[in-house]
Design a protein that fits this description.
Blueprint: H1 2-41, H2 48-61, H3 66-84, H4 89-92, H5 96-102, H6 113-129, H7 132-145, H8 152-159, H9 171-174
């Protein structure tokens, strides 16, 4: 009887190990797919269907620790929201800077998800510390031309060395 129990335990342990390895492989494959898609989508005009699929896949992978990975997907979520938003007569005549100031998501239409993330995070921080004017001086060209965002040391020089210690208000972008 003892020999039978030991054999059964060994088989259960081997099966559990195989199952863990298979789950790990599936997660790695899903992550590789999400990474491949993100490279395709990091443009100013990504395909809406692919963008939705990427966000869905990424959220499935990171669902246990959603907030830890939110900064990495924030730009894609805002981009999708902007792509689905309607532009009315008044907002059609406004610049991205003006749209951002009034909280209209259409400010993100002409930007890549990478730049959207930078703008969103740092605009949130600048509002919290009362440096909105300085923010727009730094990010004017990014918002108007989708050039690369300023380097963190340039932002710190203008905003102060504690700027990156300020928490980002993610809810302001996703609600």
């Amino acid at each position: 009887m003892r020999k039978h129990n030991n054999t059964r335990r060994q088989m259960n342990a081997q099966n559990a190990m195989k199952n863990r390895e298979m789950r790990k492989m599936r997660k790695m494959e899903e992550f590789d797919e999400a990474l491949r898609i993100s490279k395709i989508l990091d443009t100013t005009n990504p395909d809406e269907v692919q963008l939705e699929k990427y966000i869905e896949t990424y959220e499935k992978i990171t669902k246990q620790n959603h907030y830890a990975f939110l900064p990495e997907i924030l730009g894609y979520k805002i981009k999708l929201k902007a792509m689905k938003a309607t532009v009315n007569g008044v907002t059609a005549t406004m610049t991205p800077i003006q749209l951002l100031q009034i909280g209209d998501v259409n400010w993100a239409r002409g930007l890549s998800p990478k730049n959207i993330t930078e703008v969103a995070k740092n605009y949130s921080r600048s509002l919290k510390i009362g440096k909105e004017k300085e923010f727009f001086e730094l990010y004017n060209d990014v918002l108007l031309s989708d050039i690369n965002a300023p380097a963190s040391y340039e932002v710190s020089d203008v905003m102060g060395y504690k700027f990156y210690n300020v928490d980002v208000d993610y809810d302001m972008w996703l609600n």
